[in-house]
Specification:
heterodimer; A: 14 helices; globular; B: 2 domains
């Protein structure tokens, strides 16, 4: 019996043998934590207490916690502004870089690499760099510049609205390279005959952009939209280094809120409820993404 | 004539745009560099200066002389290297299985892997922290490396599967007819053609791990174990009052390795990252 199973299973023709390490690691580091976070959200567990019991109270508490809806709102603004900014800037860059490559304009690779560098650097370093630009201390470049031209300094990081705008800009700076490079690849595969034919018909370049490029790119634009939405929902280190979530809680996005709830206050049950909410949002976006991939194939 | 004039105008506009975009993207890094080159006085100087009066590399020397800082760099290197190595080794067989075998649920499994990728680190780290703490496994580099590998599995599997798909099946089939076992064919025939793909996945893993923040931030607390991304934030906090020039130097030092690898290998990285990102 055992012999039979060994022969049937321990075989190089059995795909599961090849997959075993991956299955094990994904199980331990993804599947089990995901199940566990759902389970903890139905308890009153605390990080520094050994015992806990199952209850719905935490979930009720979560939605009446002051600050929860503020955090959702901040997250919404942060994600939508960053995503729209990255999409538009990425599209413009892709179209311009494409044209420049076709015309063999020197310096195009240089500009592309420059943009991509911002994507490669650690998020904390990016946050620190932007902090030096926007800081209201004497190190801050922009306020130094404003003052030396005789203007009043701007409270980039200590005013609630300004701080939120600042983290959005820093995040656009960090993430645009991704949408640019994907859009650039997509623009490159568009059939050039469409452009030649429309040019014969007298289409202007901007008309070509709106009536040919955009409709052809609809699918890829939506896919990138979803991918960067998820990436932005998950990013917190740039905010941590730039504003630390402040002033007050003006730039505390959901992931940061979870971090603070669990690791500063030790309230792991409450943090888990928020984590499940974040997870559900990501899951919904993922399903939309997969539907689109399938549609794209058909 | 009109056509070419218009095109020239377009080129001119392109360069204007390049200038603005170039400044927007390079200036934040440049400014950190400028702060790092200056002295305490330059930081406190209120006027507008693009570069400090007497640029100096003293801050870099000072930062590198901190024993804990070189330790941060070393830890980051160690964690990224072994994380990347582990992810490539573990994902190679699964990528092979996805590319070569047809089994029930293959497509579903591929998509399931993709779904995992969409969950942020913070979601899985909340419960992970809890039970790693109960088992006394916090503050361990080995555990952090394992989590790095786990988190990178989706991307690496999809990337390597793409490379596997490009190797013609007939290559190993003929080797198997000549008496090679599947494993033998995999090692002798498929693996050598996959070297460039493995290199690509290894390097992308290294860059991602180098910048990884949230995993070591939560799972490590002893200063001597921290990698640079976390150490940097600690550094920033420690020097909030003064010593910005040192923090800037530290920040620039943490940027350099990633930038260096990227500039040297940008063609390969861009290509793999775009295919890997859209599909996986």
């Amino acid at each position: 019996m055992l012999d039979y199973f060994l022969k049937k299973w321990v075989s190089e023709e059995n795909p599961y043998m090849w997959l075993m390490p991956t299955i094990l690691l994904l199980g331990v580091f993804y599947l089990w934590p995901i199940i566990d976070v759902i389970r903890i959200s139905f308890t009153n567990a605390h990080l520094y207490k050994r015992t806990y019991s199952f209850t719905f109270d935490t979930i009720v508490e979560a939605f009446s916690t002051s600050g929860f809806f503020e955090t959702v709102w901040v997250t919404f603004i942060f994600v939508s502004v960053s995503v729209v900014g990255q999409l538009i800037l990425g599209l413009i860059l892709a179209v311009i870089l494409r044209r420049a490559t076709d015309r063999r304009l020197p310096g195009t690779t240089l500009i592309k690499v420059t943009i991509l560098i911002s994507w490669m650097i650690p998020g904390v370093s990016a946050g620190i760099s932007w902090n030096y630009l926007l800081s209201e201390a004497s190190v801050g470049f922009f306020n130094n510049a404003l003052q030396s031209f005789g203007y009043e300094p701007i409270r980039f990081l200590s005013d609630n609205t300004n701080a939120l705008i600042s983290v959005c800009i820093a995040n656009i700076w960090k993430g645009t390279a991704f949408s640019m490079i994907v859009f650039y690849a997509a623009v490159s595969t568009l059939p050039s005959i469409l452009y030649a034919a429309s040019a014969v018909d007298g289409a202007r370049p901007w008309q070509q952009l709106i009536f040919i490029t955009m409709p052809q790119m609809k699918a890829i634009i939506t896919i990138v939209l979803i991918l960067i939405t998820i990436a932005t929902l998950n990013s917190l280190e740039i905010i941590l280094a730039l504003t630390g979530g402040g002033p007050g809680r003006a730039t505390e996005v959901m992931s940061l809120f979870i971090l603070n709830t669990v690791f500063s206050r030790g309230d792991i049950a409450l943090g888990s409820v928020f984590a499940v909410v974040l997870m559900l949002i990501c899951l919904a976006l993922t399903f939309a993404y997969m539907r689109l991939i399938e549609l794209d194939k058909e | 004539m009109r056509q070419s004039q218009e095109a020239l105008l377009g080129d001119l506009a392109t360069y204007l745009f390049y200038m603005i975009i170039g400044i927007f993207f390079i200036f934040p890094i440049f400014w950190s560099f400028s702060v790092a080159l200056g002295s305490q006085e330059d930081v406190l100087f209120d006027g507008l200066r693009i570069l400090p009066k007497n640029p100096t590399l003293e801050n870099f020397k000072a930062v590198l002389a901190f024993p804990v800082f070189s330790l941060y760099l070393w830890n980051a290197l160690k964690l990224s290297f072994f994380g990347a190595l582990g992810a490539s080794l573990i994902c190679l067989p699964s990528a092979y299985a996805f590319s070569r075998f047809d089994w029930k649920g293959r497509k579903t499994a591929l998509i399931l892997i993709l779904v995992f990728k969409m969950f942020s680190g913070i979601i899985i780290l909340v419960p992970l922290y809890r039970y790693l703490r109960m088992m006394g496994l916090l503050d361990s580099h080995l555990v952090v490396i394992c989590v790095y590998i786990g988190v990178q599995i989706p991307m690496t599997t999809w990337l390597l599967k793409g490379f596997c798909d490009k190797v013609p099946r007939s290559l190993e089939e003929s080797a198997m007819i000549d008496g090679c076992s599947r494993l033998g064919a995999m090692f002798r025939v498929v693996l050598p053609t996959l070297i460039s793909g493995l290199m690509a996945s290894f390097i992308i893993n290294i860059i991602t791990n180098w910048g990884n923040f949230i995993i070591p931030f939560i799972l490590l607390s002893k200063p001597k174990l921290l990698p640079i991304a976390v150490g940097l934030l600690k550094f920033q906090g420690d020097y909030e009052g003064g010593g910005q020039e040192l923090v800037a130097a530290a920040s620039v030092l943490s940027i350099l390795p990633a930038v260096l690898i990227f500039v040297l290998l940008q063609r390969m990285i861009i290509k793999s990252m775009t295919t890997g990102a859209v599909k996986g």
